[in-house]
Amino acid sequence: MSLRGLLPDRLASQLMALLIGALLLAFLLSTAIIVVSQRRAGDSARAAVAADRAVELVVALDAISPEGQAEFARAASTRTTRIDVTAAPFVKETADNELSRTLATQIAGETERDARVSILSRVETAPSDDPRNAGRNREVVVISLPLASGERWLNFTTQEPLTWHTSADQRFLLISMGIMSLAVAAMVWLFIRRLTRPLTELADAARRTARGDHSVRVSETGPAELRNASMAFNVMQAEIARFDAERTRTIAAVGHDLRTPMTSLRIRAEMIEDDDLREPMIDTLDQMAAMAEGLISYARDGREEDRVPALDLAALLARVCEERGVAFKSDALPQIQAGPISLARAVGNLIDNAVRYGGAEGTTVTLSQTETAVDITVADTGPGIPESLFPTIFDPFTRGEGSRNADSGGAGLGLSIARRIVRAHSGELSLENRTPQGVSATIRLPISRL
């Protein structure tokens, strides 16, 4: 599995995961350093204490009669220290390690005797104090010193405790590390939130812009790089809004200015007595008039209409479907905030397209609702849309088939107008071919944004 698959998706979560991982690594490393340093210090300290104890014991044993030495040794032994007086030394020669040699030299210098020291590790097989310690390496220090009589040896054996620190020390260390980690994580989380909030706001503004809302702006806060990005986005939005407004005014003006000369031409065409000449001219002028009206609708719809706070969507769709003679099905009765005129026009454009290519009998409008959105679906049984047209099907003057006669279609603005209206309602319009034939157009309006 790749590292990307293991990391969370959001930037803030990734930064927190990185922080927690770094804190955990630092905690483990610092704990290891403390353990090693404590063990090294403990090893040297325990060995030094053992050496001092052995020197004290050999002085005391020299002052006791041979008969009392064995009893004294038994009385002086403890759970971790054992004292034996034997005829032969336990340590034949000093072990070949630095600490053993150092202690042997130190004891020999203090007692002027042949001190032999061996420091070794022994595996604990069945400790009586805690079975969980079985199998742990345990350091053992063995010191052999000849007594004054020269016939007997002091054998001093001591082993380290099974824990290098007490449980209280361990709890204190863990609690300290935990509090430190939580404090650092809290401070960094506040910084991360401050860092990522402008990014989240910028991403949301970009999505709203993609739906056609050029009025959205982002706050210019955060680090300098994010402030510069927000400032550039706001400047871009202002330029796009200005350009879009100018384009809309131009389109509306062109459509409006075309209506007067076309009306005049139609009046004159109707005065022509030759039917074969008059009818084609009138049909052509009607198409031009439809294009002009489409331009005006394209520039106007969904932009400035007042929204009804509780629009009965099912009743609106039922009326639009009844006017066009198509079937309507609904399993929901949502009331939404929307513009009834523009929304009716958007749905009407989709129904007109469906009826044009599939007939009224094969067209069905369905209203459904989920937890987050309402869906308006217009389905027909027409020939469908060629796959090559899907990338540009919503562009102005694009139609689902190539002919441009009055019987088969209009100017190719219906889908563009419908999508503009839907996006003005913070929704989205999608198209897909049905099986075995036909087209399904779905308007999805998010409830949270209505």
UniProtKB/TrEMBL annotation:
InterPro entries: 2C_sensor_his_kinase (IPR050980), HAMP_dom (IPR003660), HATPase_C_sf (IPR036890), HATPase_dom (IPR003594), His_kinase_dom (IPR005467), HisK_dim/P_dom (IPR003661), HisK_dim/P_sf (IPR036097), Sig_transdc_His_kin-like_C (IPR004358)
Catalytic activity: ATP + protein L-histidine = ADP + protein N-phospho-L-histidine
Pfam family, any one: HATPase_c
Principal location listed in the UniProt entry: membrane
HAMP domain boundaries: 193-245
Gene Ontology MF terms: ATP binding
Top enzyme category: transferase
SMART domains from the UniProt entry: HAMP, HATPase_c, HisKA
TM spans (from-to): 12-36, 172-192
PROSITE patterns (alphabetical): HAMP (PS50885), HIS_KIN (PS50109)
EC number of the protein: 2.7.13.3
Localization, UniProt: Cell inner membrane
Domain Histidine kinase: 253-449
Keywords linked to the UniProt accession: ATP-binding, Cell inner membrane, Cell membrane, Kinase, Membrane, Nucleotide-binding, Phosphoprotein, Transferase, Transmembrane, Transmembrane helix, Two-component regulatory system
Membrane topology: Multi-pass membrane protein
Protein name per its UniProtKB record: histidine kinase
Organism: Tropicimonas aquimaris
